[in-house]
Amino acid sequence: MLLEPMASLTDLALGLVSLYLCVRLPGGTPASKYWRLTFLWAAVAALGGAVHHAVLVGDPQVARVSWAIVSSMVVVVMSFLLAASVIEVLGRSRAIVFWPLRLVGLVAYAIFAATGHASIAAIMWCESITVACVLGLWVWAAAHGHPKARPMLVAIGASIAAAMFRLVPGLSGLVGLEPDSAYHLGQIAGMVLLFTAAAGSSAALLPRAARVSS
User: Fold this and answer.
1) Could you give the residue ranges of the DSSP H alpha helices within 25-169?
2) How far apart are CA 124 and CA 75, in angstroms?
3) How far apart (Å, rounded) are the C-alpha atoms in residues 101 and 130?
């Protein structure tokens, strides 16, 4: 018997969809590896979340540990999303510039998780720099005519909107679901939109002149 059936099943659906998208994602671009890792880790996190909601949530001590692990996987997903975005927009040679900023978020969330304060709110606080970097990159890319920029911004916006179901009290009730299930379903839409954006135009990088002008 599932302890939290709807949350478990929607997380399972999110994991299976993410895994399918990972397999279907075309390669051949400098960022392909990181896009695949983004979808793969999203799938692993969601499938781990399905187990958490189905079985592990019944024991508070075990649930704290399992949730810390699952939520830390979400932070890893953000790392690969940032790496893919940097390579798509600026090119591989400039990726190193963003890793110090990425490290700040990783260390901050590791402290939250280790002290038993792992949560979506903690992820949002710790990942605010990363999210700002990703959004800033794609806004800049849109201004310079990158073919993936607009669909990518729509996908990122959809994922942020899905997170609001967990962050804003009562919002999930508007769709007749509890927060976790509404979040999972919203993220399925976000992942499909991200796949569509990442698998779009084969023009993976901006023209060199545009990159240098930054």
Assistant:
1) 32-54, 60-90, 99-114, 120-126, 128-143, 149-167
2) 10
3) 7
End-to-end CA distance of the chain: 56
**CA distances (Å), origin 86, targets 19, 95, 169:** 23, 6, 34
Amino acid letter, 21: L
pTM for the full model?
A: 0.84
Average pLDDT over residues 55-80: 88
- Which candidate, 97, 89, 98, places its Cα nearest to that of 204? 89
Q: d(Cα 176, Cα 107) in Å, to the nearest integer?
A: 36
Q: What is the mean pLDDT of residues 47-54?
A: 96
**For residue range 167-184, what is the model confidence (pLDDT) as tens digits?**
898 999 999 999 999 999
Domains in the chain with CATH codes:
5-201 (1.20.1070)
Tokens of 7: 């949350």
Residues 109/123, Cβ–Cβ less than 8 Å: yes
List of residues 6+ apart from 51 with CB closer than 8 A: 8, 66
What integer pLDDT is reported at residue 101 of this predicted model?
A: 65
Contact 69, 48 (CB under 8 A): yes
